[in-house]
Amino acid sequence: MIDIKTGENHCEEWPDTSPCLVETTIKLISGKWKGIILYHLLDGTKRFNELRLLIPTITQRMLTLQLRELEEQKIIHREVYPVVPPKVEYSLTEFGETLRPIIVDMKQWGEKYTKEVLHIKNI
């Protein structure tokens, strides 16, 4: 696997690096909140409190941590405006935009799985 924080490449240890690269992608967007945050940013730039309203079960601390990680990973951009009160906006970076088809496909797959396997029709 590739260590996302340090950039160390451990894929050479694999006979075929494809699974290693899949694992790297999964680690990048894994967790309870990152995919949901990215999904909401597909619609465009959002302020912190907008994301809080869109994801009511996330704590302020967890949203801050997840946004920080996504920013460190160059997936989102944080824009701070020099105004009082502070104004901070989050958006997908150009590279983050490359996740758009993946996030959309994950949503569609989730809809299909929910209906066909779990037999939940009201989603």
TrEMBL record:
Gene3D superfamilies: Winged helix-like DNA-binding domain superfamily/Winged helix DNA-binding domain (1.10.10.10). Residues 20-118 form the HTH hxlR-type domain. The keyword DNA-binding applies. Keywords: DNA-binding, Transcription, Transcription regulation. PROSITE patterns: HTH_HXLR (PS51118). It holds the Pfam family HxlR. The keyword Transcription regulation applies. GO terms for molecular function: DNA binding. This is Winged helix-turn-helix transcriptional regulator. It comes from Cerasibacillus terrae.
